[in-house]
């Protein structure tokens, strides 16, 4: 794997907190809680194009007792709020909540008596994802930022108080910058992959925009 060349004398040192958080980050199972159109984008992330299984999250659990992450995809009505809270209470600790889309984050365009104006009125939210609906890439970016936040979580109350006293916070670096190709060869490979994907989707590799259909003729208003 190439890891042996980077380890001095084959020894790797780590503390318990980092090891526990690493295991939690790499085996985070989402709960299926799609409520509206944002759920379609969440399903797309589980497909082969985006492949969320590379982060150890390919199992969308239908049982809350086997889930770690609740992705609230869509608007939450007052009738659904008690159900959401009951499912959240059945999830084991530690657990996290990701509000996907503007409807789950703040109610969105549905400013009325039937829709909860933000899922944080019902459950504590760890990560907010804007958009209507957000792209699958945005959901992956939010998940990676949540992973970074999990890696910095204290393991007990004493460590949490010490971290609060020091004012330590996890830097939210965009994934496009954090995981950008480091050398020219990797950048060229990434560009070829992006161009092939845009060509497959019917877009222009130069600009990423959709091409106009060929053979189209203009029709004047008088005919």
From TrEMBL:
One of its GO terms (molecular function) is quinone binding. Keywords: 4Fe-4S, Cell membrane, Iron, Iron-sulfur, Membrane, Metal-binding, NAD, Quinone, Translocase, Transport. It catalyses: a quinone + NADH + 5 H(+)(in) = a quinol + NAD(+) + 4 H(+)(out). InterPro entries: NADH_UbQ_OxRdtase-like_20kDa, NADH_UQ_OxRdtase_20Kd_su. Its EC number is 7.1.1.-. Belongs to the complex I 20 kDa subunit family. Residues 37-146 form the NADH:ubiquinone oxidoreductase-like 20kDa subunit domain. GO terms for cellular component: plasma membrane; respiratory chain complex I. This is NADH-quinone oxidoreductase subunit B. GO terms for biological process: aerobic respiration; electron transport coupled proton transport. Residues 192-203, 213-223 have a biased composition (Basic and acidic residues). The gene is nuoB. The keyword Iron-sulfur applies. NDH-1 shuttles electrons from NADH, via FMN and iron-sulfur (Fe-S) centers, to quinones in the respiratory chain. The immediate electron acceptor for the enzyme in this species is believed to be a menaquinone. Couples the redox reaction to proton translocation (for every two electrons transferred, four hydrogen ions are translocated across the cytoplasmic membrane), and thus conserves the redox energy in a proton gradient. [4Fe-4S] cluster binds at residues 37-38, 103, 132. Its cofactor is [4Fe-4S] cluster. It comes from the Bacteria. NDH-1 is composed of 14 different subunits. Subunits NuoB, C, D, E, F, and G constitute the peripheral sector of the complex. It is found in: Cell membrane. Binds 1 [4Fe-4S] cluster. The keyword Cell inner membrane does not apply. PANTHER family: NADH DEHYDROGENASE, NADH DEHYDROGENASE [UBIQUINONE] IRON-SULFUR PROTEIN 7, MITOCHONDRIAL. Residues 162-223 are annotated as: Disordered. It holds the Pfam family Oxidored_q6. It is a peripheral membrane protein. It is an enzyme of class 7 (translocase). The lineage of its organism: Bacteria, Bacillati, Actinomycetota, Actinomycetes, Pseudonocardiales.
